[in-house]
Specification:
39% helix; 9-stranded mixed beta sheet; single chain
């Protein structure tokens, strides 16, 4: 059986592994990719906005959300891009627009680098191609997970309120993370995501060389609108800061740029309607989106 419908989405089987996929609408496809530690749940409020005119697909990447969790934990970004390409084949998507947040943006650019003919448009939000920004500054809860035994014990004892504490510094308005939202973000932790998160802490998804390769690919593939690029940023992100977004927008000829001044890292959670409308306009008329002077 290739597909099983379920509340909120469907389970799709590819190469013997089960993906959870949310879909809305019909028309030209656009694929929404989440980052760490989220899932397709991040895009739930953006889906209906884009689904008015397009077929919108938001998968849980393997290792995340409700999708299967490989025994060894998360795949690398390159492997995630390869897996995503096979999922899109199963969904009969030959070409699509890609929208990526956080590590999902890296997956999108990795797919773009290898299969540019399969990408019609690209939107990147709150990510980085600088390895030091992925490490963060100072102590974080992930630091504990790097320590054998101690990290395994810490993740086993993790509770929803701890996730709330971890996400709060990356929200301009923490009130958006109400009980219902927190329940949705916490659900994967009860479905095997703890193992993925430990693996992410101990064995990164990419190297500095990978990031440089994808940064170059982003510039080359999107130069002068060959593949239209929109850089959309939650301006108050304390880790993936606005200066890097502005750098892309200024140095990649033809790139469009939007900064959301009242949002932080989790832009699709804080400004879903504004982001959804901006993406819709960009996909229809890329030149209508603003540029950074």
């Amino acid at each position: 059986m290739a597909r099983i419908e379920t509340p909120g989405g469907a389970f799709v089987y590819v190469d013997g592994r089960r993906w959870f996929v949310r879909e809305r609408g019909e028309g030209e496809p656009v694929v929404l990719l989440h980052g760490i530690p989220t899932s397709s749940f991040l895009w739930r409020k953006v889906l209906p906005i884009l689904g008015r005119e397009r077929r919108v697909i938001a998968p849980d990447l393997l290792g995340f959300g409700r999708s299967d969790k490989p025994a060894r934990g998360a795949s690398t970004v390159t492997e995630l891009a390869e897996q995503l390409a096979r999922l899109l084949e199963r969904l009969q998507v030959e070409r699509c627009a890609l929208v990526g947040h956080d590590a999902g943006a890296l997956v999108a650019v990795a797919l773009l680098e290898r299969w540019p003919e399969r990408v019609t448009h690209l939107v990147v939000t709150n990510t980085s191609f600088r390895v030091e920004r992925w490490r963060g500054a100072g102590f974080s809860p992930l630091s504990l997970l790097r320590v054998p035994l101690l990290g395994d014990g810490a993740i086993a004892l993790a509770r929803p309120w701890m996730l709330w504490l971890a996400m709060r510094p990356f929200l301009a308005d923490p009130s958006v993370l109400d009980r219902e939202a927190l329940r949705g973000y916490w659900e994967p932790f009860e479905l095997g995501f703890r193992r993925t998160l430990v693996r992410l802490a101990r064995q990164p998804l990419f190297s500095a060389a990978d990031l440089e390769c994808w940064r170059v690919a982003l510039a080359e593939r999107c130069w002068e609108g060959r593949i239209p690029l929109l850089v959309a940023w939650g301006a108050r992100d304390p880790q993936f800061r606005l200066d890097e977004a502005e750098e892309y927008a200024r140095t990649i000829a033809g790139a469009r740029f939007l900064a959301f001044v009242h949002a932080s890292h989790f832009l699709p959670e804080e400004r879903p309607r504004a982001l959804g409308r901006a993406i819709a306009v960009f996909l229809e008329r890329p030149a209508a989106a603003p540029v950074l002077r």
